[in-house]
Amino acid sequence: MSGHSKWSQIKRQKGVNDTKRGAVFTKVAREIMIAARAGGGDPDGNFRLRLAMEKARSVNMPQDNIKRAIERASGSGEGEQIEEIVYEGYGPGGVAILVETATDNRNRTAADVRSIFTKAGGQLAGSGAVAWQFEPRGLIALIANGRDPDEVALTAIDAGAEDVEESGDRIEVYTSPGDLERVRKSLDAAGLPVESAENAMVARNTVEVDGQRARQNLRLVESLEELDDVQRVTANFDIPEDVFAEVAG
């Protein structure tokens, strides 16, 4: 999963810019609403909602905004119907791309996503065309904080992790989706600082592309992520080292 580690590092570099764009609150609010609607507004009994609320706090979203999103989902606030839709497509060079969205207008979202694919030299595909190339995983990011990565990895595996990767000063722990909460609690209990925990889609295998194709696909992914309706974009290409160094800077 080394390709996913590169993606994670690039996304951390981009995090400040995402916040400046101002779209991050909209994305997180929709994530909270979907989680609350699916499992109720009590975070103690709704793990997905807890994850969404923690993400909101990590980007300094005001507590009033979090509360308002939960109320809107439960019907005690103004009504807004948000639905989750996953789009599948191909980027330049045949790269498989999943686009997870949360939208109140599927026609608008479909048109926006299709337009970005087309302008980037890619194309949307039918349902199931590329989804089989990805799998759902639990993903926990830990801060190494000077600890021996091997020791951290052993602790994570003892806690039930399926795979562990070192990514700079962070360690990424992969679990089955159903074990995410249990492993996270075990890592907390072991005194390991958990930076984030989320359910993610991870490419089963990555494909190699040249530098030009890598840059084209990176621009495509970034353009998709700039849409307010897009929650997450996952692609299955490995980023060449020279392009990675250029982008991750």
What characteristics describe this protein?
249 residues, alpha+beta, Arc Repressor Mutant, subunit A, Alpha-Beta Plaits, four-stranded antiparallel beta sheet, 9 helices, 25% strand, globular
- Radius of gyration, in Å, reads 18 Å
Unreliable stretches covering 5 or more consecutive residues: none
The overall average pLDDT, rounded, is 86
Strands of the largest sheet, in order across it? 3-1-2-9
Main beta sheet strand tally, sense and closure = 4 strands, antiparallel
- Number of β-strand runs: 10
Number of domains: 3
Provide the CATH top-level class of the largest domain.
Alpha Beta
Please work out how many helical segments DSSP would assign: 9
CATH superfamily of the largest domain: YebC, transcriptional regulation domain
Q: Which class best fits the helix and strand makeup?
A: alpha+beta
Q: Might you state the CATH topology name of the largest domain?
A: Alpha-Beta Plaits
The end-to-end span amounts to 21 Å
| SSE order | HHHHEEHEEHEEHEEHEEH
CATH architecture tag of the largest domain: 2-Layer Sandwich
* Percent of residues in beta strands: 15-25%
Query: Which bin fits the share of residues in helices?
Result: 40-55%
Inertia-based shape: globular
What does this structure look like?
- The protein contains nine helices and ten strands.
- The protein is globular, with a radius of gyration of 18 Å.
- The model has no long low-confidence stretch (mean pLDDT 86).
- The longest helix is centred in the N-terminal third of the chain and has 20 residues, at 2-21.
- The protein is 48% helix and 25% strand.
- Strands 3-1-2-9 form a four-stranded antiparallel β-sheet.
- The chain has three domains: 2-74, Arc Repressor Mutant, subunit A; 83-132 and 205-239, YebC, transcriptional regulation domain (Alpha-Beta Plaits, 2-Layer Sandwich), CATH 3.30.70.980; 134-203, 2-Layer Sandwich (Alpha-Beta Plaits).
- α2 packs antiparallel against α3 (47-58) and α2 (23-39) crosses α4 (63-74).
- A hairpin with a 2-residue loop joins β5 (163-167) and β6.
- By secondary structure, the protein is α+β, with helices and mostly antiparallel strands.
